[in-house]
Specification:
The chain is of the alpha+beta class and 221 residues long. It has a domain of 69 residues. Helix content is 33%, strand content 23%. The protein contains five helices and ten strands. Strands 6, 7, 8, 9 and 10 form a five-stranded antiparallel beta sheet that branches. It has a three-stranded antiparallel beta sheet with strand order 3-2-5. Strands 1-4 form a two-stranded antiparallel ribbon. Strand 9 and strand 10 form a beta hairpin. The chain is flat, with a radius of gyration of 31 Å.
């Protein structure tokens, strides 16, 4: 005689599988969310700039000297450059720069104050380049055995940005000769002093204004 068994199952065990349409809806929602995150990373700007090593150029074949004695070099002479844009980074670019140990992140306002025009940036870059050239000459003369003293007269203010922290306090043609009591001989001295200060702190600048020394107080940031 055949052995008949009774199989009991709960209603949950016999439930139908989830409709395929629901799975597709979940996948589509996940893709939309991922796309939104990617758009967010690529479009939202943060107030930072990335500073990274730029191209290294061999300049011995570029530099030419006329009407003075010249000699063949025994080594190599390279021009080292630094790459830094002027536009704020996107979130994605910021994250990539943050992960890269060769890249430094710096707040944009410390490099390009708000309201600075492209002409002002260009003029400032030319001033920095001129200062670098003078330092290069001094280094070369020192290497040749000459006694060279490099002396600066301060950081010259060409223009004061309207609405900026120095508006109504500093004046064009002022020459900054001290920052919180520390001497300022070159523009880079002033830049380094500002970068080493806290945002929002008050700084006392000693300026040469038409031959007279004056102290002015400016809130940084």
């Amino acid at each position: 005689m055949a052995d008949l068994s009774t199989i009991e199952a709960s209603p949950d065990a016999l439930a139908a599988p989830a409709p395929r349409r629901s799975r597709w809806a979940i996948a589509a929602a996940a893709l939309l969310l991922a796309g939104f995150v990617l758009i967010l990373l690529a479009s939202v700007k943060v107030p930072y700039l990335a500073t990274s090593p730029g191209p290294v150029l061999e300049v011995q074949g570029i530099v030419e000297v006329a009407d003075v004695p010249s000699f063949e070099g025994e080594g190599e002479l390279f021009l080292l450059t630094i790459s830094r844009g002027s536009d704020p980074l996107t979130l994605f670019e910021w994250f990539e720069a943050w992960r890269d140990p060769a890249v430094d992140l710096v707040e944009r306002d410390l490099v390009i104050p708000e309201g600075t025009t492209s002409d002002e940036r260009r003029r400032r870059n030319l001033e920095v380049m001129e200062g670098s050239q003078q330092l290069a000459v001094a280094v070369a003369l020192d290497r040749l055995g000459y006694e060279v003293g490099v002396v600066g007269n301060g950081a010259y203010i060409t223009e004061v940005t309207a609405g900026g922290p120095a508006d109504g306090i500093a004046q064009p043609d002022d020459i900054v000769v001290a920052f919180d009591g520390m001497p300022v001989e070159f523009v880079q001295d002033l830049i380094d002093a500002v970068r080493g200060s806290e945002i929002g702190a008050n700084a006392t600048l000693t300026v040469d204004r038409a031959g007279e020394l004056e102290d002015i107080v400016i809130a940084l940031g």
